Amino acid sequence: MKKILLAISVLLMLALTAGCQNSEVQPDENEIRLAVDISEIEEPVYRADMEYMLSSELMGGMAVSNVRTNPLKKQIVFSLDENCFPEGSKAENFSFYVVLSGDKNGINELFSSAEKINHSNECEVFNPQYGEVYNYLLTGNFTDGFELKLKTDKKAAE
Questions:
Q1: Does the pLDDT at position 20 exceed 50?
Q2: CA angle, 126 as apex, 122 and 128 as ends, to 5°?
Q3: Alpha carbons 55 and 154: distance in angstroms, whole number
Q4: DSSP codes, 29-77
Q5: Which of 12, 26, 99, 105 qualifies as a FRET site for 79, CA 20 to 30 Å off?
Q6: How far is CA 131 from its chain centroid?
Q7: Backbone phi, psi, residue 76, to 5°
Q8: CA terminus-to-terminus distance, the chain
């Protein structure tokens, strides 16, 4: 029964996040949005998981993939609301990292081939604000790993 509920939850999450590749991310006053640009990664990416921490303590994570198992393109958006944090806490001393999978089977089976999965570094700790979009760039490959950097160019500010 637990496996069925887990599978249903994962499929629901995947369906809800399948459209998260919009190139211009709009802020939402009730959410913290992390827009991660993957356009410089040459290998296909089929799934992205984001793990986030407060004061180095793991709080949770979320995954993004296409239900039709198409590769993710250009940008991935992770949205966090107040339910993503302990009741009454603020999103202070926040950090996150991203795990990418290049294995199409990792979408439905929840596990990816070890040769086609790797993670990024953890971003610098910051205090995000609801209603803001934070733009990051992810570069690298599955062999050497990925580098997560805060975007500081003019495009990120627009």
A1: no
A2: 115
A3: 30
A4: TT-EEEEEE-TT--S-B-EEEEEEEETTEEEEEEEEE-TT-PPB-SEEE
A5: 105
A6: 18
A7: -120, 140
A8: 47
Token match 């001393």: residue? 93
Question: Which structure tokens are listed for 132?
Answer: 């803001």
- Dist. CA 151–CA 78, nearest whole Å: 16
Q: Look at residue 27 and tell me whether its pLDDT is greater than 50.
A: yes
Q: Radius of gyration of the chain from Cα atoms?
A: 15
Residue entry with tokens 């993670």? 119
Q: Which two tokens stand for residue 54?
A: 């407060």
Total-model pTM: 0.76
Give dist(CA 14, CA 49) in Å, integer: 11
Instruction: Kindly indicate the confidence band of residue 78, based on its pLDDT and cuts at 50, 70 and 90.
Output: very high
Q: CA-to-CA distance for 144 and 64, rounded, in angstroms?
A: 22
The upper half-sphere exposure of residue 66, i.e. CA atoms within 13 Å in the direction of its Cβ, equals: 15
What is the residue whose two structure tokens read 């062999």?
Answer: 143
**Range with lowest mean pLDDT among 11-15, 56-60, 65-69:** 11-15
